[in-house]
Amino acid sequence: MNTFARITMDSLKTYFVTVQRVADYSSVAIAAMSDFDNLVNSIGDEIKNLEEKKGQLVKAESIIENKITEYETKIEETKSYICKNEKDLDNTKSKLETISETFTIYLNGDLHEIPNPDYSALKIKMAKLERLLAKAYLDLDSWESRLVRCHAVERELAAVLSSITNRISKLNNFKSRVENNKKEYNSAVVSVRKNTSHAISKLSMAERSLNEYVGIHLKVNPAFEAVKREGGSGNLNDLAYLSSKFKNAPSRDIQHEKKDLDDDGKIFRNDNGLIPNSSFRKNGYIFTTDHLGRPISASGKLRLAKETPKRDWDSTLNEIGQGDEKDGDDRGHIIGHRFYGPDSILNAFPQDVNINRGEYNAFENFLASELESGKEVFVSFSPIYKGDSRRPTGVAISYTIDGVRKMRYFNNESKDGK
């Protein structure tokens, strides 16, 4: 077995090992991301509950503070009222004692203590004193009743204040629980970040292994195809007698040119065109392919070149259209050349020459003028295909200028229908 066959067999073994590694890393990453999603949802619910409780707490505090102010005012008013009543009561008692002393002198007959007594006048005064005394006793009973009621109100207000104090204590306990929940939330956030970092690490490992698998697959694939063309089954046992057929294998199969790599070093092209169902970053823009390897989206923030870059296409129109191109078609850029859109099959489609050099070019001129005026422009181009054709029927464009989003659509058919 010659050297190339041995290398091919080693590559196949590495290929199968890599596929298994990709599956293992992918399952771990998917599980980690699932745990991450569940934890995020749980934290989201907890945050929502905390926000609701916080709102209730703020509302309850406001109500209690208003009630405390109201009850404190009532207590002060009651105390002032009680103080005034006590003064009035003292004055009434003093007057009553004076009247009582005078009345006692009269009852005891100690009239000699009254200078120059006028008996008729004394009788009148005595009657008046009796009425005043009766009224004084009634007033005394009334003031004492009021004082009793005031003290009862004071006791009630004291009980209310005690209840408010207990509620404030409960609110403080609730605040403490909210703070503890916040600490648990922060701890959960740290855990989520760790899980996210772990998941991203696993996904990166899976992506590297997948790129390795793609590279190996592209190198080994010509061997399989050649074996099948010679009537073999494509097994490792067929490679020994066919190894000489790969000494002059195409350079694209064995060693990819720099043009076939994206900004991250990922291979985006094989013998059949673009790698299907994948996303690539080229010249800072994101390109996505469908199941047939057709570019279905190109997006990113536009950058305008100071000078138009030199064109350096990596593909012919036929390689781009694979037979679906029409006479009079151009190699149309999805993202314009002046915006650093790559001269690559990744950024190209068969485009009607009149459209490409007419209204499509005018739209690019408009975007360029917006960039020159200092505005920020984001674009997303989406070629629209019919069936399995590699020539789109049109291009839908969503673009945003300084935050204002708009849409455009360009037909890819001439007005004459050709």
Describe this structure in words.
By secondary structure, this protein is of the alpha+beta class. The protein folds into two domains: 3-213, Helix Hairpins (Orthogonal Bundle), CATH 1.10.287; 260-411, Extracellular Endonuclease, subunit A (Extracellular Endonuclease, Chain A), CATH 3.40.570.10. It contains seven helices and ten strands. It has helices spanning 3-108, 119-229, 239-242, 251-254, 317-321, 353-357, 359-372; strands at residues 269-270, 273-274, 279-282, 285-289, 295-301, 329-333, 348-352, 377-384, 394-401, 404-411. A six-stranded antiparallel sheet has the order 3-4-5-8-9-10, covered by helices on one side. α1 packs antiparallel against α2 (119-229). The longest helix has 111 residues, at 119-229. It is elongated, with a radius of gyration of 48 Å. Residues 239-256 have low confidence and may be disordered.
How would you briefly describe this protein structure?
This protein is α+β, with helices and mostly antiparallel strands and 418 residues long. The protein folds into two domains: 3-213, Helix Hairpins (Orthogonal Bundle); 260-411, Extracellular Endonuclease, subunit A (Extracellular Endonuclease, Chain A).
